[in-house]
Amino acid sequence: MWKRGPFRLTFLFLACITLSMFAVPWPVEAQRSAPEWRLLTTEHGLAANEVWTLIQDQQGALWFGTDGSGVSRFDGRWMTFTEENTAGGLAGNLVRTILLASDGTLWFGTSKGLSHYDGQGWIAWRREQGLPDGNVRSLLEVDERRLLLGTASGAFVLDRQKMSFAILDALSNDNISSLLLDSQGALWVGTDEGLKHCQGPEWRACQDVQALTGVQVNRLLESRDGRLWVATLDGVRYFDGRDWLSLPVPEVWSLAQDDRGFLWLGTNGYGVYRYDGGQLARLTTADGLAANNVTSILQDADGALWFATVGGVSRYDARTWQTPVRETIRALARGPDGELLLGSAEGGLRRFDGHVWHPILSPGDSDRVGLPSDRISALCWAEGTLWVGTDGWGLARFDGQEWEVFSSAGHGLAADAIFAIEQTRDGTLWVGTHQGLSRYDGRRWETLTTANTPGLASDWVLTFLEDEQGILWIGTREGVSRYDGQQWLEPLTRANSGLAANEVRAILQSDDGALWFGTWAGGVSRYQGGEWTTYTVADGLAANGVVAIAEDSRGGLWFGTPSGATRYDGRTWRSYTASDGLANNLVRHILEDDQGAVWLGTEGGLSRYEPDAGLPKGYISAVSGQKYEGQEVAMLSGEALTISFGGGDLRTPPERLVSLCYLEGVEENWRLCREGLVSYNRLAPGDYTFHLQIRDEDFNYSQPVILPIRVSAAVILPWFGQPLALPVPAFGAIVTIMLTAVGALLLFTVSRRQTQRKAREALKRKFNPYISGEPIRREDMFFGRADLLRRILHILHNNSIMVYGERRIGKTTLLYQLANRLREDSDPEYRFIPVLIDLEGTPEAALFHTLMEGIVQSVGALLPELPPLLFRAESSQEYGDRDFSRDFSQLLAALRETTSKEIRIILLMDEMDVIDTYERIVQVQLRRIFMQDFAQNLGAVVAGVHISKEWDRPESPWYNLFNEVELPPFSEEEARELITEPVKGIYRYDDQAVEQIITYGEGRPHRIQQYCLEAVNRMLAAGRTRVTLADVEAAHEAITQAWGELPPATGAPEEVLPAGKE
Amino acid sequence: MRNPYIVGGWVRGPHHYGRETLIDHLLHSPVDAVWVIGNRRMGKTSLLRQLEYLTLADEMYVPLYQDMEGCSTFAELSQRLMYAVEDVLERFRPVGLDLKELEGRDLPGQLRLLRQRARRAGRKVLLLWDEAEVLILAGQENPRLLASLRAELQQGEGLRVIMASTRALSRLNDLCRDWETSPFLFGFGLRNLFGLSPAAAEALIRQTQGPQPVEVPPPLVQEIRRHTNDHPYLIQYLCQRLFEAEGRLRPITPSDLEPTDMLAHFFEIDYRHLTAFEQAILRQVAAYGTVDEVALQRATGIGSSPLRAFLFGLTKLGYLQERDGGWAAHNTFFERWLQAHMEQLPTMEYSRVSERTTQEMLIQGQKQEAEYLQQQLQVQKRNLHELELQRARQGINVPLPLIHEIEHAQAEIERITQELDKLAAFTGSTNLSTSRRLV
Questions:
Q1: b or e along A891-903 (b: 16 or more beta carbons within 10 Å of the residue's beta carbon)?
Q2: % of chain A residues with pLDDT over 90
Q3: What distance in Å separates the CA atoms of residue A419 and residue A434, rounded to the nearest whole number?
Q4: Are residues A555 and A654 both part of a single domain?
Q5: A449, pLDDT greater than 70
Q6: How many CA atoms lie within 13 A of A429 on its CB side?
Q7: Strand, coil or helix: A456
Q8: Going by DSSP bridges, is the β-strand pair A403-406/B159-165 parallel, antiparallel, or unpaired?
Q9: Distance between terminal CA atoms of chain B?
Q10: Which of A217, A481, A800, B177 has its Cα between 20 and 30 A from that of A1051?
């Protein structure tokens, strides 16, 4: 027997070398296809990326056992169970194996013991609970009563009724990695030293399998043909009934067989192999696998494969989208028995046998059998007769026995290039061409053109539909013609109907009787009951050119366009493109088969789409900032209601899920809810119900999530001179609440006294921290832009930035704050030197002088002595960009003497709009200084209202070196912070007062500060420490009077604002 | 970790990704006057700065980068050249140049002096001209000097000029339509500066040349590449937005793909550089997403042969891409811009360059592109041959780096072969692929 030692290592090394020598020509590399993969890692919610095992439970949820972080459960939403959060119910956080028992409960083998979870609670067995060895590596359900445990020191039987463990003597000293009970009742045991075969009652007789002696066995599998497969460190071995054979796959860790019979082999470092009985194909990280070390493999209920790896979990779905035919598809038809037929642009006809598309007429066969050409352009299969239109070679009929060809020359067909074929219920055949419409009654051909048929809108006849009333609708390039069997009706065009465009390429009557017209360039128009509705890209269509329409058995409509296929179910839209798995974005034909799969004939092949049936999951995570635990929400009228929600699905990533919601009692219908958040303000007292539904990519909708909300009327009571809002039904409990409040007050007396003392002192000295009309220089008074400031600081070491935003939105303040932060920055690599420059009033000729003046002031203190600069010698009018560059180089050289860090001088230029008044040449000169060799030492943040992007010189626009960043108005949250934070712990605001300032402030920081300043002044005048709604209203009156009428928050002309900036 | 992506500013050294083959060609091809054409933000300045950076210690080249921006006359160009030399005067000491000698000379005269001094010292000035569009303004002012400048630039010995601009520069040919000699740009090698190679794009996304690579899951890399179509500026632009302080990129949200005001202006300027025919093609793409050649022909009325020439140019310059058997906007940002401006597109100004010049330049570009690719194919095949020999000498102990080099060379050969096939499809000729197979 080989033990671990030099000889064995040498063999392994040689084996690896041998394998790698054959690695290139040997396995067939699987085709790379990103849409088939989905990666799940800790970023998504997995407890750890090192996953040892995975399983799907009877509810469809997936369970992942991790290497030290417990178990993660995923059913669209993540949940993690650990030893800690289950109070020891999970025996250990290193979970090696999970077993789904026949009763639907789960068993977990961990490094510290065994655990059981029945959906309600956890139970653990460790050594203390009688488990002989805590390191449980494999689990096997023998029957309803017995469970077999493989551990590092033998196998044990758990009697689930007695809850007792018994040792299996024949395996008492083995380090067991895997267990398998085969279909004959024999037990196979994989160990670190080989494979054992146990038979007899209670498997008392175990024998080593000689062929595998000394080989480390990782996993066992019995394939559906009864063959035993053994995953070992030396590859995969299998027994063919006589001999042990092997597949050339290195270091196999995991095994699984899918429902098509393919064997999947997960390896340690080589990815995953698929074995179809003949060939091996390999998938690796290059294809989309999370890591090449694959510890466990599972096929879920939807047929997708899951690979657990040491770098996360990958879901591989090669089933939802397939492309069985890679030819340009020109026609698709469904026969009377549901059988499918396709015609390709150059490859003749193919027929589908339920599994494979067979070329029934491949190139070259056509002449032999009688079809005039392989270039198929249209198909019609009705009443046992197949009609085949070709692209220039006429029309062929096959009656089940023989072919007959009709052409323009011999039979009077309008033209030989066929666009569309339709057989109406009266047996008449209609053929559309670019030279008119041909009609065939079984005996003779008749050609209809615009010349002889006034009802025909155009000679270009593109598509047909016979509706439920027997009216034939004919799509042409110039509108839709209609024929009721007796006479021609007036054609419908854009001019006389609601048709979106005249060129109509597809028509469909949906189950509800509505007619749908796919137009070229106008989108799709729906007609029902005299009403027209048009849907375009703006609604959700992939493109406005619609060339195919179909309805599926779930009531969904499909539209084929040049930019993909769009599905619409009356509620939501979704477009599928090549990035989803479609063979090509130009979709000409769509058809659903009897199994519910949708076939899409495209320019690049035939795609089959089999939607996944698993339902996504929706959930509400928080209501008005509080974690939501499933209870009814009670609130007071006037309070804002904010609902945070989310959704998940096994196949669809969260960002592609669609959320629908509505608040019953306020809204009448479902609507799209984005960003995982909805808000409602000022709900009147009453009962409401919030509904949420999540839709996945396959149009599966989650069970509706329902949130009952009760809004109570608020009563305003005087309370210590302040208004207090209380719910009406709770009025009787006021006394209790008051007593409780008194108690609470007593408890917090000390802190309250401190606060009151602060407030008294503040009141005495009329403390009012708000600033109006000036930029904020102090950091402790700067609120609401923390994220933006951080973002800018993170890129400023190698970027320049242009900040734009309306007047008085806080640009100057932002520049001041940036200067503060840059001065304090202690980056190990960069020495930032901020230079604040206000360009307002700077004459064009003095621009560069002004810039250098600012720089000299900022660096002066850093240098013991300034180098000789042209700036000193020349007048501001003479000083140009060239002089600036020379001086800058001098200063830079001097600064480099003072530090080993990279120097980065940042020009913080305010009122940059002034540059719009300069000559183009000056703008260009400004850019030029940033293009110099010293560009890495010079950056800028320029701020303006709307710096013009007009450019008429041939070279690059002056502004193209900047990153553009918008300074938007404050969000409600930011505004609230700006209102309350400056007086926190000193004064307080009534909620209504805050809300009113937010309303009046419209997100403009200067205006919010103005209101706060004024309201606090009113409060101080009244000797109070609490700002009330009345203070805010009084402030509003005062501000309005001062201004006349309040200027609009946006686009306020500069001249009506008070003096001073911001 | 600081955000490592650089948007707007030029880059060189480790910040410069890809373009190795082009750089090698620009430095070693026999053609001494090359015009690098690229759209705004495609990386022209960075390419020139990288060339300068790579040749700083070169024994043959004396690199001289000149930003021509802001010049409108030859006098100004001449002055700027002096400034450029003054800034790096130490580089010219080995060729014995005194700055004063440049004074009083016109631009061709200055170049002549530089060329002669360099040649005498057994060196060559590598003149890197950025923002070369200003030559249009200078040429309008003094056509005579434009003619002598062309003569000087194409002298070769002692001087290699690589000038970068947008295709607006082709207007120079209209200005000198009545010259007795060839138009200004004939005789220049044309090199299109388009997107990065897939490997370089991925490296840029992951910042593999930086001190700390960024963590980006493979599907996200592919998504970024798909939306940007390997456009270097757009990659940096998008990645900068996606970057999180922990050193990784977050997933893309739809708002990340909306062009900002500034990006929209760049697209507009690029759009205005197109001829009326080219704009008509883009309007079709805007309307239908993906349009095939037949539909384009029908909608625009452009004949098959010129249409292919236009499609070639639009693809090379980053306006279009081949998608699903048709033509689509080059990247998601541009696609959205086109769709959002559908109504304004017909009213936008178009290029003042004549259709004739545009077509001439495109045809010349195709020809030179084919020659360039053939040359690259030869180089790569020779390289592969050499590497295979090395591998054979190593027996079974082939070092991993050598295997990677061989794989890289094989991939390059495959890529160039595909490029040649595409080019053959554009020109409608089978000559290219035939000759390729004969190589």
A1: bbebbeeeeeeeb
A2: 42
A3: 8
A4: no
A5: yes
A6: 27
A7: coil
A8: unpaired
A9: 49
A10: A800
| Diameter over CA atoms, chain A | 109
| Spatial distance between the Cα atoms of B153 and B115, rounded to a whole number of angstroms | 10
Same structural domain, A562 and A699? no
Q: Cβ of A101: how many Cβ atoms within 10 Å?
A: 15
Q: Hey, is A1036 helix, strand or coil?
A: helix
Average the pLDDT over A234-246 and give the result.
86
Positions of chain B with pLDDT under 70: 175-183, 354-355, 359, 392-398, 426-439
Which conformational region is residue A1026 in: left (phi greater than 0), alpha (psi within -120 to 50 degrees), or beta? beta
Whether residue A468 sits in one domain with residue A580: yes
Q: Strand A312-316 and strand A37-40: pairing?
A: antiparallel
Instruction: Please check whether residues A457 and A584 belong to one and the same domain.
Output: yes
Nearest to A882 among B4, B6, B83 (CB): B83
Q: Please check whether residue A143 touches B, CB under 8 A.
A: no
Same-domain pairing of A514 and A431: yes
Tell me how many domains chain A contains: 5
Do the domain assignments include residue A153? no
The reply to whether A137 falls in a domain is: no
B125 pairs with which residues across the strands? Answer: B62, B159
pLDDT in the model for residue A469: 93
Whether A875 and A943 share a structural domain: yes
Token pair of A970, please? 């404050």
> Do the chains contact at B8 and A928, CB–CB below 8 Å?
no
Last residue within a domain, chosen from A608, A628, A645: A608
pLDDT of residue B436: 28
Specify which residues A99 forms β-bridges with. Answer: A107
**A797 Cβ under 8 Å from any chain B Cβ:** yes
pLDDT of A207 strictly over 50: yes
| CATH code where residue A817 lies | 3.40.50.300
- Interface check for B208 against chain A (CB to CB < 8 A): the answer is no
pTM: 0.51
Strand partners, A659: A694
B14 at A interface, C-beta within 8 A: no
| CA dihedral sign of residues A837, A843, A844, A848 | negative
What is the percent of chain B where pLDDT is above 70? 92
Beta carbons of A603 and B69 less than 8 Å apart: no
A550: closest CA of chain B, how far (Å): 20
Pick from B40, B136, B243: which is nearest to A960 by CB? B40
Average pLDDT over residues A596-612: 92
Pair (A976, A959) in one structural domain: no
Last residue of a domain, one of A692, A712, A732: A712
Query: In angstroms, rounded to a whole number, what is the distance separating the alpha carbons of residues A482 and A471?
Result: 7
Q: Is the dihedral of CA A569, A570, A573, A577 positive or negative?
A: positive
Provide the Cα torsion A77, A83, A86, A91; round to 10°.
Answer: 110
Q: Residue for token digits 């020659």?
A: B371
Q: What is the CATH number of the domain that holds A687?
A: 2.60.40.10
Domain region containing A1042: 971-1056
Q: What is the CATH number of the domain that holds A423?
A: 2.130.10.10
pLDDT (tens digit per residue) in A499-535: 999 999 999 999 999 999 999 878 999 999 999 999 9
My answer on whether A727 and A854 are in the same domain is no
Contact at 8 Å (CB) between B181 and B61? no
The answer to whether residue A75 sits within a structural domain is no
The 3-state DSSP class for residue A180 equals strand
pLDDT tens-digit map of A844-903: 889 999 999 999 988 887 888 888 888 888 787 889 898 999 999 999 999 998 888 889
Hey, what are B21's tokens?
A: 């083959």
Give the burial class of A356: count Cβ atoms within 10 A of its Cβ; 0-12 exposed, 13-18 middle, 19 or more buried.
Answer: exposed
The β-bridge partners of A520 are: A545
How far off is chain B from A48, nearest CA to CA, in Å?
16
Q: Do the domain assignments include residue A271? A: no
B318 vs B314: CA distance, rounded Å: 6
